[in-house]
Design a protein that fits this description.
This protein is an alpha/beta fold. It has helices spanning 16-24, 76-88, 107-119, 132-140, 147-150, 153-174, 182-196, 203-212, 246-251, 284-292, 311-321, 359-362, 390-403; strands spanning 3-8, 29-32, 41-45, 48-52, 65-68, 73-74, 96-98, 103-104, 217-220, 258-266, 269-271, 305-307, 309-310, 325-329, 339-348, 351-353, 366-373, 407-411, 419-421. The protein contains 13 helices and 19 strands. The chain is globular and about 65 Å long. The protein starts with a strand and ends with a strand. 48% of the residues are buried. Bound molecules: guanosine-5'-diphosphate, 6-O-phosphoryl inosine monophosphate (IMO) and magnesium ion. Magnesium ion binds next to loops.
Length: 425
């Protein structure tokens, strides 16, 4: 029995929430393995829109297990708020579980995220401001607090006191900022522990049990391949490993049975935050993509930068993650363009390459475009490949030929039902 991994192939916001919700129907457990509430995953079902940040996108199915694994950094305030919001809308949370090994995002991480960004002056990353970088930094430096710590008053207080002696020194001495008070933080966080306690469970043995029972696991990626800490456009990246390689380290489920890796890519490209984006459209066409695609961040509301699809970047993401199939989303957004451009390679000094130049050369590389015919007809909600205009089918076939990867799913709208099942996954 093999399990599925679903990952973002670009700079995030590819529509992972929608595709996860779709594939969750045939899975028994949905697992978030990396990132934190910097993620914003949208699921639209029966006209209802849900914006998820930490809770896996399988949560609308009451019988599915939804697991937040140890690779995720958890802001307890944000998680409790998200849980409360879903409960109010009648979503059952009985099968939601959280790893005790997951690290906590604390208020000083949010403050440091902001201060570090301010300190970057002209080279800002454009983080989501959710404290993600500082929380992962503390995890690596072995001074982080974990969900398991939060469950014991004594342990949490002692570990927080120790953490504060370090964090407050940084705030006071380096930034000349007000410091955090131990009593105030424990008074705020210990009650949150009681809300989370019924959901805390060790996950590696649970995942193994699910596997042994022959049940299906779907691992839900956050962010995207080009935001990977090592292989993305560093330093304009996030602080975790959003790719398929992050699954085992982020969950404790070994790689042997991870057999299907589904890459989710938008039919065009967006990026929120700073960093290189060679196919970006800054004029009217970019504006048109933004409006038609409603490209505004789920987490921060920021307008997303928009541009044409970048095939070298897609090939790179596919290679890094040994992707077995693609889900192409938001094809409907491209309706109404007379021509669609697609980046097929890069010009580097005097040679052309099909590969994505490394990040040290990317700023000076020039994208090479091929122009394909567009289509005018609205294709929102189309569910069969044959019903697409020939130009749209040509666009899909072109991407498939250029990447050598099957486009198995095509999404034509935000709703669960707006999907073309083109090839088996
Ligand atoms: P994620 O972070 O990868 O889950 O993606 P986001 O939820 O941040 O952004 C994707 C946005 O596009 C959401 O508003 C979705 O509801 C929407 N969406 C997903 N698939 C489609 C599609 O095929 N067509 C259109 N028009 N919208 C889509
Ligand atoms: P989902 O899961 C898009 C980007 C930020 C910034 C960089 C670092 O919804 O696709 P961070 O707060 O992580 O330190 O910010 O990463 N970023 C995302 N962009 N979608 C996301 O998540 C993102 N999560 C982080 O905009 O450029
Ligand atoms: Mg998103």
């Amino acid at each position: 029995m093999g399990h599925k991994i679903l990952i973002g192939m670009q700079w995030g916001d590819e529509g992972k929430g929608k595709i996860t919700d779709l594939l969750a129907a045939e899975s028994d457990a949905v697992v978030r393995f990396s990132g934190g509430n910097n993620a914003g995953h949208t699921v639209v079902a029966a006209g209802q829109k849900y914006e998820l940040h930490l809770i896996p996108s399988g949560i609308l199915y009451p019988e599915k297990l939804c697991l937040i694994a140890s690779g995720v950094v958890v802001d307890p305030r944000s998680l409790v708020k998200e849980m409360t919001g879903l409960k109010k809308r009648g979503v059952a949370l009985d099968n939601l579980y959280l790893s005790p090994e997951a690290h906590l995002v604390m208020p000083y991480h949010l403050r440091l995220d902001k201060l570090e960004e301010e300190g970057r002056s002209s080279e800002k990353i454009g983080t989501t401001g959710r404290g993600i970088g500082p929380a992962y930094a503390d995890k690596s430096a072995r001074r982080g607090l974990r969900v398991g710590d939060l469950l014991s008053r004594e342990r949490f207080t002692a570990r927080l006191e120790k953490a504060l002696s370090y964090q407050n020194a940084i705030l006071e001495k380096l930034y000349r900022e007000p410091v955090f008070d131990l009593k105030e933080l424990t008074a705020e966080f210990l009650p949150l522990a009681e809300k989370l306690r019924p959901h805390v469970k060790s996950l590696p043995s649970l995942l193994w049990k699910i596997h042994r029972q022959g049940r299906q696991i779907l691992f839900e990626g956050a962010q995207g391949a080009l935001l990977d800490l090592d292989f993305g456009t560093y330093p304009y990246v996030t602080s975790s490993h959003p790719g398929a390689g992050g699954v085992s380290s982020g969950t404790g489920f070994g790689p042997r049975y991870l057999t299907s890796i589904i890459g989710v890519a938008k039919a065009y490209l967006t990026r929120v935050g700073q960093g290189p984006f060679p196919t970006e459209l800054t004029g009217d066409q970019g504006e048109k993509l933004r409006e038609q695609g409603q490209e505004y961040g789920v987490t921060t509301g920021r307008p997303r930068r928009c541009g044409w699809l970048d095939l070298p970047a897609l090939r790179y993401a596919a290679m890094l993650n040994s992707v077995s199939a693609l889900a192409l989303t938001k094809l409907d957004v491209l309706s109404g363009f007379s021509e669609i451009k697609i980046c097929t390679g890069y010009k580097l000094e005097d040679r052309i390459t099909e590969r994505l130049p490394d990040v040290f050369q990317l700023e000076s590389a020039r994208p090479v475009f091929q122009t394909l015919p567009g289509w005018q007809r609205d294709i929102s909600g189309v569910t069969s490949f044959q019903q697409l205009p020939s130009e749209a089918r040509h666009y899909i076939n072109f991407i498939e030929e250029e990447t050598g990867i099957n486009i198995s799913l095509i999404s034509t709208g935000p709703e669960r039902k707006d999907i073309i099942h083109r090839k088996p996954l």
